[in-house]
Design brief:
785 residues, alpha/beta, OB fold (Dihydrolipoamide Acetyltransferase, E2P), eight-stranded mixed beta sheet, seven-stranded mixed beta sheet, 23 strands, globular
Length: 785
């Protein structure tokens, strides 16, 4: 039921417009009625029914025979097919109705007017470098002479400081309603049930929620949060707030990167497991007090509802909350249900209430993890007879959840570390103590500060343990499963389903398969070692990071050097994992701009780094501040080289050509401060220039430091900040322009013309994707995506 409805909601974007909404709904209802009409029923058999006391006892053979069906009825498979098709059609119709309601709402019709809205915040305002943003449910809108009550959602985006409000608060915001021009962003909003964004000029908090239950949750969250911040150091306080309340406002960025790289990031947001951790002690206390069934049911449901509101109604928490409510009701009513049935019912109910949930990655991962545990946890634990039962159950549940979510992780994030299973097994025993003891310490601290500080000492032990597990697993030299796209999703789901079928069937692994796997293992290991091994010549891989720079240099002796890491926080780290990189001898941050160093903290968190080079010039860039924190957290050695210095990295020679000193007073001092490196192996040369501009290029020309090279990384993404004489002096055979969609006009046609006039072959990453330059036998070979 849930799977068919889910599929219908997903395929709506493909087939939804082929029929009107009413036709889809009518078709679905008709198919369901037909399925019910033809469903087979048990035949009573000929003759009158005998009283139970005198009914003959069937023989063992008769008892094993299947029930007879009413003649003329369709077989069960036909009814099932009609029911599935009916639910598919209803899913398409219901999703289309929801989309039409969203797209045709009043806010969409008012855009691009300037309006004032009264709204309830769905999320805490999140501040970033450009301002702040939040999701909100609008209840009243005023525009010119119009005042209307609405029930629509909107994305708030403002400049400056965010209003002092939290999720659940009522706010008044004034600004311009806009419908996004970018189709991708518009689709992203629509999948959140939002069609417009409000560019906020002014926003004020009107007060807390009008709902008493929500106000209590807000007050409790603020009280506990303040106590946690008083009792714990900022790093531990941020981790505990994430574990217990889903509040990531204080989360240490370095710690967040470690948890992400180790596959433990799900612990930093409130999930279904937190519901169990909170509900378990409450029900245990109710049982100890010998409360009747219905009061225990009311307490359990109330606890779940309060926790859902407290943590901001995250999709995973709502799924777990509805499942808990259905399970409690089944128990108290004397009609317990299977875990699979409860999961299906919860998913179906939530999708009916909010069809947009089908696009929520958090909801998808939560359902997939739970489905994996329902299908595989016990069978896996039963096969681990060599482990103590508690350890086997933990390992089985962790592996089952990982099998469930891996296809989705590959589809969205393109990678899954094989260390995830081990990391989760080691982390699992500490999660509940960290959360429960930490919350107990916070509660005790409100009544008795001295006792709260004493209890906090015990909570710090599991918190620190989780930090260590995340840090060690993040840097573990293990391979990563990589993929991406629809093919990874389809193949992953098929393999997971086949694995579940085989495991639940109880069949033993065929001996031929075991022997074949053992025979192929050395071959696979050998081929993997070859693919991840050193190249035959000096190789530079210019990664396509859109508007930014990132280049990986490798050599026959196994030297590895990364120069910059692009604007995305995780892309380069993911790409390096996919390439089989295990460590980096040298990392270079050419200058402190986001399009060059935003991805370096994740690289430092994931890979051992021998040395980091950076200009070391004064700069208050927030990205430089973040990089410095990552350097300190990982203990990475740092040097600030100057022109004339030489480094030997394995068999590679690296000469620093610029800067001689830090620039002051130019149009862009950080760009002119870029580290310019001449990388060579024998007679093969590559010039990496960062964002070097005209003043620094003039100095290189005057001092005769602009060498004739084989390969040039074109300065500043091919922008109009270079000298024609610089390209003439370099006289490169291949010139690579690392660029992507931008509003600066990069690369400039005139600059590209200058480069081509030197005889160079110009290759752009925005057109070619990743560009790989390999030196073989004195020749430069170029390949691209």
């Amino acid at each position: 039921m849930a799977a068919a409805t889910w599929t219908g909601l997903l395929v709506r974007t493909v087939v939804g417009k082929r029929l009107p909404v009413a036709a889809w709904l009518a078709l679905g209802a008709g198919l369901l009625v037909a399925a019910i009409a033809i469903v087979p029923r048990r035949a009573d058999g000929p003759g009158p029914r005998l009283p139970a006391a005198t009914a003959p006892v069937p023989s063992p053979i008769e008892a094993l025979a299947p029930p007879r069906l009413v003649p003329g009825r369709a077989p069960p498979a036909a009814a099932a097919v009609l029911a599935v098709l009916g639910l598919l059609a209803l899913g398409v119709g219901w999703g289309s109705a929801h989309a039409h309601r969203t797209e045709g709402g009043l806010l969409a019709r008012l855009a691009p007017a300037t309006v004032t809205v009264e709204a309830v915040l769905r999320t805490d305002p999140r501040e970033d470098l450009d301002g702040w943003s939040a999701w909100a449910d609008v209840r009243l809108v005023r525009a010119d002479d119009l005042t209307a009550a609405v029930r629509e959602a909107v994305r708030l985006e403002g400049r400056g400081e965010a209003p002092t409000a939290v999720r659940g608060d009522r706010v008044e915001a004034t600004g311009q309603l806009l419908l996004p021009d970018d189709e991708g962003f518009a689709g992203f909003l629509l999948r959140r049930g939002v069609v417009a964004e409000l560019r906020v000029r002014e926003a004020v908090r009107l007060g807390p929620s009008e709902v008493a239950f929500v106000r209590w949750a807000q007050a409790f969250r603020a009280l506990v949060g303040r106590s946690i911040r008083d009792l714990f150091a900022p790093r531990h306080a941020g981790l505990l707030l994430g574990l217990s309340l889903g509040d990531d406002t204080m989360l240490d960025p370095t710690l967040e990167r470690d948890f992400r790289a180790s596959g433990l990031s799900h612990l930093l947001v409130v999930s279904g497991g937190n519901v169990v951790m909170v509900l378990g002690p409450v029900l245990a206390l109710a049982s100890l007090l010998r409360l009747p069934r219905w009061p225990r049911f009311a307490i359990g449901v109330g606890t779940v509802a309060f926790f859902v509101v407290l943590t901001g109604a995250e999709p995973s928490v709502m799924r777990a909350g509805v499942m808990a409510g259905l399970t409690l009701f089944g128990v108290v009513a004397g009609r317990p249900r299977s875990a699979a049935g409860v999961l299906s019912g919860a998913v179906f109910a939530l999708l009916v209430l909010d069809p947009a949930l089908v696009w929520s990655v958090g909801f998808q991962l939560s359902v997939a993890a739970t489905a994996g545990m329902v299908a595989l946890a016990t069978p896996l634990a039963d096969r681990m007879r060599f482990l103590p039962r508690p350890v086997a159950l933990t390992a089985g549940a962790t592996l089952a959840a990982q099998v469930g979510v891996t296809p989705i992780l590959l589809y969205y994030f393109r990678e899954v570390p094989l260390s995830t299973l081990v990391a989760n097994v080691f982390a699992f025993p500490a999660v509940a103590p960290a959360m429960l003891v930490g919350l107990a310490a916070a509660g005790l601290g409100l009544l008795w500060p001295t006792g709260g500080h004493a209890a906090a000492v015990f909570a710090r032990v599991p918190l620190r343990y989780l930090e260590v597990v995340a840090d060690r697993a993040a840097r573990a030299p293990v391979p990563w499963v990589t993929g991406g796209g629809l093919r990874s999703l389809v193949v992953g789901v098929a393999l997971a389903s086949a694995f579940a079928w085989w495991l639940r069937s109880g069949r033993r692994t065929p001996r031929v398969l075991v022997v074949g796997a053992l025979a192929l293992a050395p071959v696979l290991a050998w081929s993997n070692a070859l693919s991840a091994g050193a190249p035959s010549g000096l190789t530079v891989r210019f990664l396509d990071v859109r508007q930014g720079d990132a280049a990986l240099v490798t050599s026959p002796a196994g030297a590895t050097m990364l120069v910059d890491a692009g604007p995305d926080e995780t892309q380069v780290a993911t790409d390096l994992s996919a390439l089989g990189v295990k460590r980096l001898d040298v990392v270079v941050a050419t200058h402190p701009h986001a399009d060059h160093i935003a991805g370096l903290p994740a690289v430092l968190a994931r890979f051992p780094v021998g040395l980091l080079l950076e200009p070391g010039c004064p700069d208050d860039s927030p990205f430089q501040v973040e990089l410095q924190r990552a350097i300190e957290a990982e203990g990475t050695p740092v040097r600030h080289p100057r022109a004339g210095e030489r480094l030997v990295v394995g068999d590679i020679q690296v000469e620093v050509l610029s800067p001689g000193s830090c620039w002051v007073g130019t149009a862009s001092d950080p760009n002119n401060d870029s580290l310019v490196l001449l990388v060579s192996l024998g007679g093969d040369t590559v010039l990496l220039t960062g964002d070097l501009e005209e003043p620094a290029q003039e100095v290189l020309l005057e001092r005769g430091l602009a060498p004739d090279v084989d390969v040039l990384k074109v300065p500043h993404h091919g922008g109009a900040t270079s000298l024609e004489a610089f390209f003439d002096a370099v006289d490169a055979e291949v010139a690579v322009v690392s660029t992507g969609p931008n509003t600066y006009g990069h690369p400039v046609p005139e600059v590209l013309g200058w480069i081509r006039e030197t005889g160079a072959r110009v290759i752009r990453t925005d057109l070619a994707g990743d560009v790989v330059v390999v030196f073989e036998g004195g020749e430069v070979r170029v390949a691209s995506a």
